[in-house]
Amino acid sequence: MSRHLARRAVLPVIAAALAAALTACGSAQSAVTSADGTTTVTVGALSNGAATATPITVAAVQEIRAKLPQKIRDGGTLKIGIGALPSGSPPLAFVGTDNQTITGSEPDLARLVAGVLGLKVEFQNSTWENLFVGIDSGRVDVGFSNITDTEKRKEKYDFASYREDNLAFEALASNPWTFTGDYHVLAGKKISVGKGTNQEKILLEWQTKLRAEGKDFTVSYYPDINAAQLALNSGQIDSYLGPSPGALYQISQSKSSPHPKKLAGTHSGAGDTLQGLIAATAKKDSGLVEPLAAAINHLIGNGQYKQWLGAWHLDSEAVAKSEVNPPGLPLTNS
After folding, report:
1. How far is residue 104's CA from residue 90's CA, in Å, rounded to a whole number?
2. Residue 234 Cα distances to 88, 159, 258, 310, angstroms
3. At 202, phi and psi to the nearest 5?
4. Is the pLDDT of residue 21 over 50?
5. Is 231 helix (H, G, I), strand (E, B) or coil?
6. Quick one: signal sequence residues (predicted)?
7. Rounded to the nearest 5°, which phi and psi values hold at 76?
8. What is the pLDDT of residue 6?
9. 13-164+274-317 and 166-268: same fold?
10. Interstrand relation of 190-193 and 218-220 (parallel, antiparallel or unpaired)
11. Quick one: DSSP state of residue 14?
12. Vertex 24, ends 287 and 195: CA angle to 5°?
């Protein structure tokens, strides 16, 4: 889990994301393909300090490119799904300082992978729910959007893992409450979580267990991370449960604010007994997962993966290799 996230607020994120269209293409400041077939991705470009801008050059690897489905290889473009509407989720995915370019750790990795595959990128930015609709319909080839590998999702999707999935409870620094790993400490609390996420699944299963014991807690939903942060600031909720990078980013931004926040506890995104994994997500049996994993492993082997993680301050979420359809969040969180 990362504990060294960005230190300066991304001021234009809210307005820019609300103004963004469904599709946002990378600008020349984010990725440039040269005549020799190499692609230079400026990781962290336009992030307003959320990352350390770092140029990384990758070459197309023909052996890996040859594994692509012919339609994508011949088309020359990889359509990337990002579920960052309406307001983005730094440092994972949000609209950059030019008010149009999708930036964040997830789209930057997608740019690097596309470079290895010798493809251009086209980003389709949508709400979380519509991200999966896009994959299902074929409007999107692959999702790079902090998607957790789960056994339920494997019924429809293939996964190429690229980062550990850790969840974090965020609370006001003045609140003595902490999550100890025992779900009983949730009794009587008000917890916010993103709808349709794997962290919601975990939270609701804890709620079911507590209710069976005659106890309960309140699950609150808000339209985006900004609304959840306002609810936390005002005391409407006790804690927000979300992806560790985003929670730690929000904590770092709040240090000098009237409502400083703290890390109140962590949990694996795959439940109680398994380390969760974030993965590139493609439609099942589309033929994309093997070349995606090979491209990620190429980046790992050449050191560019480490550079990408470092630029976004996510070093401690590194994986040793990309795996195809590794064990994911069980059908029951046990």
Report:
1. 7
2. 21, 39, 11, 34
3. -65, -45
4. no
5. helix
6. 1-30
7. 80, 5
8. 34
9. yes
10. parallel
11. H
12. 75
Q: Taking the mean position of all CA atoms in its chain, how far away is CA 222?
A: 18
DSSP state of 140: -
Q: Which residues contact 330 (CB under 8 A, 6 or more apart)?
A: 151, 270, 271, 273, 274
As a dihedral over the C-alpha atoms of residue 248, residue 251, residue 256, residue 258, rounded to 10 degrees, the angle is: 170
DSSP notation for 96-131: -TTSS-EESHHHHHHHHHHHHTT-EEEEEE--HHHH
Segment 210-228, tens digit of pLDDT: 999 999 999 999 999 999 9
**Residues 91-104: tens digit of each pLDDT:** 999 999 999 999 99
Given a contact cutoff of 8 angstroms between Cβ atoms, the answer to whether 97 and 28 are in contact is: no
Please give the class, per CATH, of domain 13-164+274-317. alpha beta
Taking the C-alpha atoms of residue 111 and residue 294, their distance in angstroms, rounded to an integer, is 15
CA distances 173 to 86, 238, 252, Å, are 27, 11, 12
Cα 82 from Cα 101, distance rounded (Å): 12
Contacts of 9 (CB under 8 A, 6+ apart): 48, 253
CA–CA distance, 24 with 319 (Å, rounded to integer) = 29
Domain ranges of the chain: 13-164+274-317, 166-268
Whether the per-residue pLDDT at 106 is higher than 80: the answer is yes
Q: What is the pLDDT of residues 285-300, one digit of tens each?
A: 999 999 999 999 999 9
